Amino acid sequence: MKTVTQSLAEFVVSTEANVLPDWSIHEAKRTLINMLAISLSASRAEGARIVLDWVRDEAAAEHASVIGAGVGTSPGIAALANGFLCHLQDYDDTHFPTILHPTAPVWPAVLALAEKHAATGRDTLAAFVLGAEAACRVAISVHPWHYDQGWHITGTAGVFGAAAGAGRILGLDKDKLTNALGVAGTLAAGVREVFGTHGKPLHAGHAAEAGLRAATWAQHGFTGGSDIIGGRRGFWAVASRDGHSEDALLGEFGERWELRNNGLKPFANGIVSHPIQQGVIELRDEHALKPDQIESISVRVHPLVVELMNRADPRVGLEGKFSFQHCAAAALVDGAGHDAQFTDEKVRDPVIAGVRAKVAATVDEAIMEDEVYLTVKLVDGRTLDKHVVHATGSPTNPMTDDALEEKYRALAGEVLPAQQSGDLLSAVWALDEAADVQAVTRLMRK
Amino acid sequence: MKTVTQSLAEFVVSTEANVLPDWSIHEAKRTLINMLAISLSASRAEGARIVLDWVRDEAAAEHASVIGAGVGTSPGIAALANGFLCHLQDYDDTHFPTILHPTAPVWPAVLALAEKHAATGRDTLAAFVLGAEAACRVAISVHPWHYDQGWHITGTAGVFGAAAGAGRILGLDKDKLTNALGVAGTLAAGVREVFGTHGKPLHAGHAAEAGLRAATWAQHGFTGGSDIIGGRRGFWAVASRDGHSEDALLGEFGERWELRNNGLKPFANGIVSHPIQQGVIELRDEHALKPDQIESISVRVHPLVVELMNRADPRVGLEGKFSFQHCAAAALVDGAGHDAQFTDEKVRDPVIAGVRAKVAATVDEAIMEDEVYLTVKLVDGRTLDKHVVHATGSPTNPMTDDALEEKYRALAGEVLPAQQSGDLLSAVWALDEAADVQAVTRLMRK
User: Fold this and answer.
1) Beta strand pairing status for A359-363 and A294-301?
2) CB pair distance less than 8 Å for A191 and B186
């Protein structure tokens, strides 16, 4: 009789890389492009400086690269740093059913070990797909009870995905992966109390590192028991006392893919104003709009927009992220909503502030959360209308590859020379054909 | 209004090293001697090999020593390895009210940072005292609810003590230590499901490392919030839902010392047979007993001894640890009960097996758990009696310094040359006068 942990391990080790669906390999590339973009951008933030200085102080043997840091280190430390960077600006992907962010704990673990062991591109992508699937399945098996209890599910469920992905790279068998999941699972950590502090992105980094170490040690005989998930004092019993679902974890392997329910974010702020930003940018692009042409921007929106984001006069960057007026104005002026649009300087920029003062909202209960009606009046008397039915970024209406590339170019371009940034993007798109993942990793250091 | 976490931080940062009671400094030395003894012994075990090989692979800059490994590494990695070694054989100290093992998560964090920063001996000992007190107080604030829920309290409460002790070495102020406690506390981890695997000692190592890193990062501005312990989604709310006590955490600072309730183990096996082993060794020493003199050994004991440890014919080392007959026989033959008395070879040793066959127990409800009546009949017709009223090892009846030195010599002697082992012991006893803790750390590597 297999334990639930052994069943999960068996799925992870026994699924051949070449039977994975094409869409999953493509999605793995997209999540990697997204991770590189946001981590490169985040590498210049204050919290990143603290972690990257520490990575340099550790001065471990250089087997794996830290994104945008110009530095190599041990796989575990690289996983920690890259997981932290990936989640630092809350700009990573989201498994919509659980609010788990699968990339930040899983990709850094997979990538660091793959780099050390010069894994093929295909094996690396497959390890991410299976690791992310494991993380999402553990997450959905305890949702919503676990998150409601106060756990940050990216930190907790994330360790299982990191161990599974790392275990794939190391070629662990079922028993060793079960032990790796045990070691990783008992290190599951992260509470929502620290949201708004550096602790939150650290959860992702910790998960990546813990899973990677667990797989590394298990390869050499380290033990972690036979059922960390379903055991009497395991993850379900201790950290999700109010409920769990074995079927959500183990049902329909190979048919139901939780990775399908993952979405990339087009804007760096909270999701409720995304339809506005998308509509403004579409009008801007269609009509080559300039700030001095704007008479007014009127939006008809779901009530949550006003409830959560009505801040006509933000004073600092973070307040800009919670101002639909600022989001709309920055979208009009810059054509984007990355972190660069939410700095203190941007919030104080007179051109943006000028447009911001012309934005007004009407609440309409009949409008959906991912919908907006926009009316832009121009000083020359024209009126432009736009109806966004479903904003992109959700699994049912994903960001296009073009939009993702645009996000990548904007963010990677802040840090990397244009040539290198472009080469790195091309290398990821071609990763499934690459004989060695270092085709990507050597370009991402900086 | 201070949060509970800020109140704990204030106690830790504001208590001057030179006002700590003398007994606490002495106890800090004793716990360090005990840690060195058991970690040196454990450094030869299989699980230790895996971790120590990994430490060498990380090849981090050499700022801190791993006990018995002949290797230096970063403070964080040293803390992980030493915490693991200290708890690997379940031979470390115990805070009796909570079953927390305070040394394994706290001393490794304190020692590694103190070594890097060449702290004075007095400051290092004080950092341990305050870190251990913080760990014990967090533990008792959630006891018994937290442990009953399935958490391994050494891994969870341990992170707070490690951060507090590390924060002392770094001279953090109250705000920075509060942030450090936040970062460490959100990484609290370890469930009882993995007891009996390498996961269990890893909890101690993880706690030591997480606390040390949290303090290190907080020194440079890393944030972790203002109340990881008492916050709405903090440690109490999320990981001890059935109860907690603010008074247990914060009451009577400087008067009630939980470190007072800490005890060292004289024998490497479960506690219930300790009175027998102690009585046998006392008779052996008083009468210079040899195995071939023994006609029979009769013990009158608390019922738990027979319930938990009646195994007349153990076949492997681990079974010997759960055999009062083997414990008594090994005590008679070797005069000890360390891990060396519980190897497969020792269990099969014909001399020990011969004595073991002569051990018999009678249960007596009137006898206390830490008590025994012993009667040894000799082949020459003599009868020797011994009544152990309270076995040593509990806080009310602690191991003597002499017994601790004997334990240290037996275990350290397995690994270190006699001269170095003696020098190291002397260095710890003199640590409060040492200008630099490296007087100890340079001798413990091997």
Assistant:
1) parallel
2) yes
